[in-house]
Specification:
Elements: H1 5-14, E1 19-21, E2 28-30, H2 31-42, H3 68-96
Antiparallel strand pairs: 1-2
Helix pairs in contact: 1-3
Length: 149
């Protein structure tokens, strides 16, 4: 199954704007940026002698990049790389979503207090004993204060 270098660059052009994360440093980028700059600058990989998508584990002598076995390897590696990057980004998106994204804080129960229009803005969390007018039925002290009171 021979693939030409033109078909490799066609695949690369098709997926060039695909967002992915670098498998080593987890930095978000496009496939174009990874192939053109990131791999060569950060990991010192040369696309003429090494497979960038395999992080240099597949090598060939300079000038042999367009041989059929090397082109087939790089094209298959690119396809696997993009597929894995898409799967990882989908998994990460699912993990980042959390139940608190739509969280709406609920104040403590009113516990017999009357809710007026200002209670949600001013003094809602004030002590219950400081504003007895908020209580519909009054507070009854039935003991606990001792015999002297």
């Amino acid at each position: 199954m021979f693939k030409s270098s033109a078909s490799f660059y066609r695949h690369l052009g098709r997926w060039s704007s695909t967002l992915m994360c670098c498998p080593k440093c987890r930095e978000p980028m496009t496939v174009r940026h990874f192939y053109g700059k990131h791999a060569s600058q950060k990991y010192n990989l040369d696309c003429r002698k090494l497979c960038l998508f395999f992080f240099g584990r597949k090598q060939w002598p300079q000038g042999k990049k367009n041989r059929p076995e090397n082109v087939n390897h790089v094209t298959a590696c690119l396809q696997r790389f993009v597929k894995d990057a898409k799967e990882e980004s989908e998994i990460e998106e699912e993990e980042e979503v959390c139940g608190c994204r739509d969280f709406q804080p609920v104040p403590r129960e009113m516990q017999g207090r009357r809710k007026d229009r200002l209670s949600k803005y001013v003094g809602f969390y004030d002590s219950l004993l400081e504003k007895p007018e908020m209580w519909e039925e009054g507070i009854e002290f039935q003991g606990g204060w001792g015999k002297d009171v």
